[in-house]
Input
Amino acid sequence: MKGSIAKKGANYYAVIAIGTRRKWFKGGATKKAAQKVLNEKLGEIEAGTFKEIPKVKFADFARQWLKNNEIHLKPSTSALYGIIIEKHLIAYWPERKLDEIRMPMIQDYISERTKKVGPKTIRNEVAAIKSIFKYAIEAEYLKTNPSAFVKKPKVEKEEIDLLEPHEIQKLLAHTTEAYRVAFMTAAYCGFRAGELWGLQWGDVDWNSGKIHVRRSLWKGQFQTPKSKTSIRQVDMPPFLVSELKKWRIRCPISKDELVFPNTDGEPSNHYTVFKNHFKPALRRAGLRHVTFHSLRHSNASMRIQYGQNIKYLSTQLGHASIDITMDRYGHLFNDKDFISGQVSLFEASVRIPLEMDKKEGGQAIAVNA
Output
C-alpha cells in the first residue's frame, strides 16, 4: 500500500487510500513531518494494528466522560468537575477537537487561570483535565496523553489558625443551645464538618465511648467520607459522652436519626450554621475570626500538647498516613511547650521506678551514656 503527501492550507498531510476512502492524516507545517506520519500509518496498516481514532469535540467528550464516571465519584466531586468542565474547560476550548489539544495548550490554560485563581483551584482543574485525557487513552480516542507531563502549581502551606483550650470554652459558652454540643463534638473529636453533620445516633457507641464515622453530609446528600481512612472510630472524652446523652433528650426529631440536625429536624446546612451560629458565637465571645475547620486544627493541637502518640493521632483524625499528619502539624512538635511537656513526661517515667527501688531498699545507679 502506498500513500502520498498533500498540502492543505498551511499544513502538510499524509494521504492514504483505505478501502474506498482516502484518509487524511495531519502531519504539520513541513513535508518531513507529514512523511513521518505517513510512514507510521503505513507501518500500522501493514502490521494490522491500525485503528481509526474517532473524531470528537473536546466539549462533547468531556461531558460524556463526566456522565460515564458519575457513578464512581462522590456527589461533591462530580459537582465540582461539572463546574470546571462547563465554566472553564469548554469555555477555553469551545470548538477544539479532542486530538487537537497538545500539552503546551494545556500549560497555556494553566497560565491564564493563574492570573485569576489560586493554586488549589488550579490543581483541582488539572486533576479534571488529567482524568479526562486518561480516559481518552483508555477508550482509544487518543494514542498519547497531552496532559501526562503537565506541571501543576505549588500550593504554599497555609498558616494553621486554631483556638486555644480556654478560647474553645469561651466559644462554647457563647454558642446557642441548638449547636453548642455540635461545636463541642467538633472541637474534642476533630471531625470534619461533613462528618459532623452526617453523624447518626446509631454511630454512637455508648459502651465503648466511641463514635463511628461512616458517612459525610454534603448539601443535604449523604456520601462516603473523604478517604478510606476517614471511615474510623473516634474516642470521646468522658465529659462529651455525658453531654451527648443530655443532648439526645433535647435533640430535634430527625427522620435520618441525625445527631445534629437543624431546629426543624432536617440535615444541617454547613454554610447556614457557620453564618448564623458559629460566626456570631465568635463575635459574642470576643474572639478573632477563624474558620470552622479551625476546630479540627485545635483538636490536633491539643492532642499533640497532651503527648498523644503520632500514630494514634493520625488514626483519630482519619489521615491516610502519618506523613500527612506530620506535614500538616509537624511544626507543633517543635513548640517549646510541647518539648517541655515531653521532657517532664520522660522525667516522670524515669523517676517512678527509681523511687520504687528506693522504697524496696535498693540503690540508684548512675549510668553514663
Notes: The first strand starts at residue 3 and ends at 8.
